[in-house]
Design brief:
- The complex is a heterodimer of chains A (about 280) and B (about 170).
- Chain A is of the alpha+beta class and about 280 residues long.
- Chain A contains three helices and twelve strands.
- Chain B has about 170 residues and is mainly alpha-helical.
- Chain B has six helices and no strands.
- Classes of the chains: A alpha+beta (about 280), B mainly alpha (about 170).
- Chains A and B meet through helix 2 and helix 3 of A and helix 1, helix 3 and helix 4 of B.
Chain lengths: ~280, ~170
C-alpha cells in the first residue's frame, strides 16, 4: 500500500488538491459568505506588499502619463500655434479689408458729393526723390484719365495729373515745390496760392499783409483754376508770419490729406464744380 | 560522486519552496496591482504552474499550484477555489502531458502554455456552470481565451528563463 502511494504520489496529490479546490469552489460560488480559512491571514500578509507595489506602480504610471502627456501637449502646441498663425493672418486680412472698405466708402461718398463721374485709382508708386513729390496711379488714359485732372481724397486735395499713359498716370502732389493751387481762406475768403515746399509741406503764397489769417483757419480750393472743384479742403493754417520787409504774409498750411499714407484716390476732370452749385 | 536520491530531492525542495514562494507572491502582487495599468493582464501564475508541471512533477508541485491559485483567489476577490481548481487542473494536465511529450523544444513549451490556458478556461467554464454563474464567466472567458494564450506565450520564455536560472539544478529532461 505504501509503495503504491509512493508510486502514484503525484497523481494522488493532484487528485487531492483538485478535489479540495473543487469543494472550496463549489461551496464558495453558492455560499453567501466565503469559506476561506487562511484567506484573511494571507490578505493581511499581502496588504503591505500590495500597498507598496500599488504606490510604486501608480507613481510610475503618473510619470509615464506626464511623459506621454508632454508629447501630446507638444504636438497640440504645434497644431495650435499653426492655427493661431493662420487665424492671425486671417484677422489681419479682415482688418485690412475693413480699412480698405472704409477708405473706398469715403471715396464713393466724395464722388457722390462731387456729382461727376470721377475715376477711382490706386496709388502704385511714389517718387523716391525728396524734392519731387509725385505718385503714380494704376489708371490711365484708357480709363478716362487725362493730363490736368484733379486728384482728391475724402480728406482733401492731393494734387493734379501731370503725365498720363494708357494705363498709368503720374500725379504732382500739392506738397511738391512746383505745384500751385488757387486757394481761399474759408473764414475770410482771402485768396492765395497753395504751393508745396522743399520740406514736403505747404504754404499759402501771396497773402497780403492786410488780409486777416489766423492759425486754425481752413484753406480750401477756390475753383478758379479750372482744375480743382471749388471748396475742397486743402488744409489748416498752422503758422502765420510777417516780416516787415516783405509784402506778403508767410502762411504755413498743414495739409489735411495724408499724402504719404494714401492708397486710393479719386481723379476728377478739370472745371467741374460741386454738385448743386 | 553523486548524492543519494533522497538528498537531492531534499535539496531540491529546500531550494524550490522559497523560490516558488517569492515568485508566487511577486506574480500575485503584479497581477493584482501593477498589471492593472496594462491593456491586458498577463497570467504569470499560469506560467508558473506550467513551469511546476514541467520541472517539479511532485506532490510539492501540486501543492504549490493549488496554493498559487488559492492566493490569487484570496487577493483578487474571485470565489475561493476557482483559481485553485484551475491551477491544480493546469498542473495535473501539464504533468500528465509532459510525461508523454519531449519538452526540450521551446515550441512544445509554448504549446503546453496554450494547453494550460485552455485548461484554465475549461475549469472556469466548468465551475461557472457548476456555480450557476455561467452567464458571468462564459462570455468573458470565451472571448479572451486567445488573447490570454497569446500574452502568456509571449511572456513564457522570459518567465521560464528567470525561474530556470534561479534554480541550481538542471531539470531538463
Amino acid at each position: 500500500m505504501q509503495r503504491l502511494v509512493n508510486r502514484h504520489r503525484v497523481i494522488l496529490s493532484c487528485g487531492f488538491f483538485l478535489l479540495l479546490s473543487l469543494v472550496l469552489a463549489a461551496i464558495n460560488t453558492r455560499a453567501t459568505y466565503q469559506i476561506d480559512p487562511v484567506g484573511v491571514l494571507l490578505l493581511e500578509v499581502m496588504h503591505p506588499l500590495q500597498v507598496g507595489v500599488t504606490a510604486v506602480s501608480q507613481r510610475a504610471e503618473r510619470v509615464w502619463d506626464r511623459y506621454v502627456s508632454l508629447w501630446a501637449v507638444h504636438e497640440q502646441n504645434e497644431v495650435l500655434r499653426q492655427r493661431l498663425e493662420a487665424l492671425e493672418g486671417m484677422a489681419q486680412q479682415a482688418t485690412e479689408l475693413d480699412l480698405t472698405n472704409q477708405r473706398l466708402e469715403k471715396l464713393l461718398t466724395l464722388r457722390e458729393e462731387l456729382g461727376v463721374n470721377a475715376v477711382a485709382a490706386h496709388v502704385v508708386g511714389r517718387s523716391p526723390v525728396a524734392w519731387v513729390q509725385t505718385v503714380v496711379l494704376d489708371k490711365g488714359e484708357s480709363q478716362g484719365i487725362s493730363k490736368g485732372m484733379a486728384v482728391l481724397v475724402p480728406e482733401g486735395v492731393v494734387g493734379k495729373v501731370t503725365t498720363v499713359s494708357a494705363h498709368t498716370a503720374r500725379v504732382q502732389l500739392i506738397s511738391d515745390p512746383n505745384s500751385g493751387v488757387d486757394a481761399l481762406v474759408q473764414r475770410t475768403r482771402t485768396r492765395g496760392i497753395a504751393a508745396g515746399t522743399l520740406e514736403g509741406g505747404c504754404t499759402l503764397k501771396y497773402v497780403q499783409r492786410g488780409d486777416e489769417v489766423q492759425v486754425g483757419d481752413q484753406v480750401v480750393t477756390s475753383g478758379l483754376d479750372d482744375i480743382f472743384p471749388k471748396g475742397q479742403l486743402i488744409g489748416t493754417v498752422a503758422r502765420v508770419g510777417t516780416k516787415d520787409s516783405r509784402m506778403f504774409q508767410d502762411v504755413e498750411v498743414m495739409l489735411s490729406a495724408e499724402l504719404s499714407k494714401m492708397e486710393e484716390v479719386l481723379v476728377v476732370a478739370p472745371g467741374l464744380v460741386r454738385a448743386g452749385e | 560522486m553523486y548524492a543519494p536520491e533522497s538528498d537531492v530531492s531534499r535539496e531540491k525542495n529546500r531550494w524550490t519552496l522559497p523560490l516558488l514562494l517569492c515568485s508566487g507572491i511577486s506574480a500575485i502582487l503584479l497581477q493584482t496591482t501593477a498589471f492593472h495599468y496594462l491593456p491586458w493582464i498577463p497570467d504569470l501564475l499560469l506560467i508558473l504552474c506550467v513551469y511546476l508541471g514541467i520541472y517539479h512533477r511532485s506532490a510539492g508541485g501540486a501543492a504549490g499550484a493549488f496554493f498559487l491559485g488559492y492566493g490569487l483567489d484570496t487577493c483578487s476577490g474571485v470565489p475561493v477555489g476557482m483559481n485553485a481548481f484551475a491551477m491544480s487542473l493546469v498542473f495535473a494536465g501539464v504533468t500528465a502531458l509532459s510525461r508523454c511529450l519531449w519538452l526540450t523544444n521551446p515550441l512544445s513549451v509554448l504549446f503546453m502554455v496554450f494547453v494550460a490556458v485552455v485548461l484554465k478556461t475549461s475549469a472556469f467554464l466548468f465551475l461557472g456552470a457548476f456555480g450557476e454563474i455561467t452567464e458571468v464567466f462564459q462570455p468573458i472567458v470565451a472571448r479572451y481565451v486567445m488573447w490570454d494564450a497569446t500574452v502568456a506565450m509571449v511572456l513564457t520564455p522570459l518567465v521560464f528563463t528567470l525561474l530556470y536560472r534561479s534554480e541550481p539544478f538542471d531539470y531538463r529532461v
